[in-house]
Write a structure and sequence with these properties.
The chain is α/β, with parallel strands linked by helices. Helix content is about 45%, strand content about 10%.
Length: about 210
């Protein structure tokens, strides 16, 4: 879901609160439900405990480097860019990258348009391509304010956009995730894919940063 934003620029700053580590937090209702569901799935024979552990290990091992590779290839290969815009999961498989089973949609930045991702309900996020989600992405402040005042929040992240740049906020869900395709920095025409990928951080893929030359 894409939210239209209300472009009110508030000149104040809100901290992005750190969330407690899961291991240190009490067992919540959702955590108990997750454990019960996992036990039921195993009891029904749909998968084994080992299958669940392997999937969790794969998620934990994911990093933003996978998403950065997709962006770098899209920057140098126009036909791949079109395939990435059409279907992230299929395009990722071309590079032997497993994007997971949940559909992911690429939203491309362009002159006059900046995209940013949020999950207003919880913390849905393409972890196979971006690695673990940052604490601030899961915070209530980010989830609420990014929809209400995206320009102000982006400014707090150091992304100051011209007044005539439209900001589109994309709301991730359990059924659909998003990946931002940022603009390629000027002066990188002769760069290799590997060198280009090094410019793309996790925050660039969320939309709260832009690739910057070293």
């Amino acid at each position: 879901m894409t939210h239209p934003h209300h472009d009110h620029d508030h000149d104040h700053h809100h901290p992005h609160p750190r969330q407690p580590d899961v291991e240190d937090a009490p067992l919540t209702w959702h955590m108990a439900l997750t454990e019960a569901l996992a036990e039921l799935i195993v009891a029904k024979g749909l998968c084994t405990t080992a299958d669940i552990h392997r999937t969790l290990e794969k998620i934990d091992a994911a990093s933003p480097a996978a998403g950065a590779r997709l962006v770098a290839r899209a920057w140098v290969d126009p036909s791949f860019r079109e395939r990435l815009l059409a279907d992230v999961n299929v395009a990722a498989a071309e590079l032997s990258i497993d994007a997971g089973g949940i559909p992911i949609r690429t939203v491309a930045n362009q002159p006059g348009l900046h995209n940013v991702i949020v999950c207003t309900l919880c913390s849905c996020y393409p972890r196979f391509l971006l690695g673990g989600s940052p604490d601030w992405y899961k915070s209530k402040a980010y989830r609420a304010r990014m929809v209400r005042e995206p320009r102000a929040v982006l400014k707090e992240f150091g992304v100051e956009l011209p007044e005539n740049t439209r900001i589109e906020v994309h709301d991730s869900t359990a059924e659909l995730r998003y990946l931002v395709l940022p603009d390629r920095p000027e002066g990188t025409g002769a760069w290799s894919e590997e060198r280009l990928a090094a410019l793309v951080s996790r925050d660039c893929l969320i939309g709260t940063d832009r690739p910057r030359l070293p």
